[in-house]
Design a protein that fits this description.
Bound molecules: manganese (II) ion, zinc ion
Oligomer: homodimer
Strand order of the largest sheet of chain A: 1-3-2
CATH architecture of the largest domain in chain A: Orthogonal Bundle
CATH superfamily of the largest domain in chain A: Winged helix-like DNA-binding domain superfamily/Winged helix DNA-binding domain
Largest sheet of chain A: 3 strands, antiparallel
Shape of chain A: globular
Distance between the termini of chain A: 61 Å
Strand content of chain A: 15-25%
Order of helices and strands of chain A: HHEHHEEEEEEHEH
Number of helices of chain A: 6
Radius of gyration of chain A: 18 Å
Helix content of chain A: 40-55%
Number of strands of chain A: 8
Number of domains of chain A: 2
Chain lengths: ~160, ~160
Amino acid sequence: MPRGNGTGPPWWHGRFRGGGYRMTIPRETIVNVLSKTSKHLSAEDVYMAVHKIHSNIGLTTVYRTLELLVQMGLVFKFDFGDGRARYELSEGPKGERHHHHLVCTSCGRVIDYTDFIDEEIELLNQTEKGLSKKYNFNITSHLIQFYGQCNGCNLK
Amino acid sequence: MPRGNGTGPPWWHGRFRGGGYRMTIPRETIVNVLSKTSKHLSAEDVYMAVHKIHSNIGLTTVYRTLELLVQMGLVFKFDFGDGRARYELSEGPKGERHHHHLVCTSCGRVIDYTDFIDEEIELLNQTEKGLSKKYNFNITSHLIQFYGQCNGCNLK
DNA sequence: CTTGATAATGGAAACCATTTTCAATAGGAG
DNA sequence: CTCCTATTGAAAATGGTTTCCATTATCAAG
Ligand SMILES: [Mn+2]
Ligand SMILES: [Mn+2]
Ligand SMILES: [Zn+2]
Ligand SMILES: [Zn+2]
């Protein structure tokens, strides 16, 4: 029978099952950790958070699961230049959450932004179309990051 | 006396001396290697090319020099997702050669493009201005890469 | 609810690009 | 030409990520 409260299985279960993957405690826990933060976590970060919940989950599994999630398109993997990969849930139940980044080269802070994406999308589409034709290149995604000094690092 | 032929000291000598750095064989050789290619070389690539000319130059020095060149602004350092940094001369005697990249996720090919940069610059400036104000963020540079399948990987 | 095939896991070891160490070398000002 | 010290190169260390492989757990089938 369906549960009395409104708590059905998390929306991402279907994504795993649909892909032919098993639903496991580590996977469940890792996605949960990612879905509860807006930060850009490293594999180690995820491991530590996950470890508080199930101390037996290994770092290897965290790496494997994150890679799987990236493959599935559920997670974005970024390199902000600090020598370790950063991971972030790519979508919620509602859909994609594509965005770009401001990276502070002083303190390493990373700011998500979607504000100016409308104007950007304009040029992006134009550019992608032009480049596709010019180089006969099938564009599937893009990476846009701005570097500089953040609020806190500016004034001082 | 100045040399009889038109071969003065390479234009980048001044950049080193001006920065208070010594002009050495390894540095000379490394910049030469970079200036003779339009490819995106890894440290290992540079090392191998340099090794053919002066077999005594070490990989460590290649890393150190590339880092110095990046610091000096003479070289761009990129991450195309293959686990190693890629380097490329940022300017010639004439000036900057800033550009963006198309990265083939199938074969790893990287295409430079400057063609559509005019339209891009428009939005880029707009976006940078908007973001700067909105987040009080001092933008100094940006990274733009498009991913997809190249010419060769497309048709097949 | 069992069972069984096999997908998934976790600890340890391996990988591998990059960095650090440190004694030897060489650039270039004086 | 000399001397100070920036620079170099070999070897070892680092540190994030992968690989190995024996053990465990998922879940379709009965
Ligand atoms: Mn983000
Ligand atoms: Mn390039
Ligand atoms: Zn900052
Ligand atoms: Zn290709």
